[in-house]
């Protein structure tokens, strides 16, 4: 996936933040630009532009940038406090979002770099969102004034992702093909359809080492499915268990819509209990 969309949205988010904070004085604007630059450096190939020498030390340079920004935000918070004319909550929200997204990426929770970048973009375009369009529990509102909106999006996405295994189970039950526990994570597919479906093969008849989970392009992914289909056909296998390839960006998009409409679903549900 190209970074052009992320770059445009990231720059737009930083500029909108500057316009929003400009009446509050120089400190909020400068700090916003600092955390905004931390977001943007993930979106532009600055290491490639500076040549191979810098590229070899890119990780070290990026680590230094993280340390400098962290120190700047902490020193400003202790020196000026937190508030509209000091260190805005929106600045802290973006900073926390970047650390959160990067940590989830490094831990493998966010598998692709695009997922982490999308989360950072949400943070810089909409750092906080305390007033969703639909009514929410009274206990949820105070929390949404300080919880980064990106965290709300991720929590809503995690909750909504439960729909996927439930939907697969219902489909398998309706076709009388449900098997526990795989009936919650996949479905039976005709081998002849395998090359044209965006799925991963999760079948005992296919050795795990033959499944290409690290394909970087759709062409490589399809080529792996074509190879597996040919091997299965040669063995006389007609159907295999597969798991649909649902990009986490799709789930995050659903979480974004849910966050805008209803706020943090998890916090809202807890506040209503």
Structure description:
- With 273 residues, the chain is mainly alpha-helical.
- It has two domains: 1-127, no CATH class; 130-273, no CATH class.
- Helices cover 61% and strands 5% of the residues.
- It is built from 13 helices and three strands; from the N terminus they run ααααααααααββαβαα.
- It has helices spanning 4-21, 26-40, 46-49, 52-56, 58-80, 89-106, 113-125, 140-144, 149-160, 163-174, 218-235, 248-262, 265-272, and strands at 187-190, 199-201, 239-244.
- The chain has a three-stranded antiparallel beta sheet with strand order 1-3-2.
- Helix 1 (4-21) packs antiparallel against helix 2 and helix 7 crosses helix 9.
- The protein is flat.
- The two termini are 42 Å apart.
- The mean pLDDT is 87.
* Order of SSEs: HHHHHHHHHHEEHEHH
What overall geometry do the principal axes of the alpha carbons give? flat
Number of domains: 2
Helix amount, in percent? 55-70%
Radius of gyration: 23 Å
Q: What's the main sheet like? A: 3 strands, antiparallel
* Whole-number mean pLDDT: 87
Distance between the termini: 42 Å
Which stretches of 5+ consecutive residues score pLDDT under 50?
none
Strand arrangement within the widest β-sheet reads 1-3-2
So how many helices? 13
Summarize the structure.
The two termini are 42 Å apart. The protein has 13 helices and three strands; from the N terminus they run ααααααααααββαβαα. By secondary structure, it is mainly α.
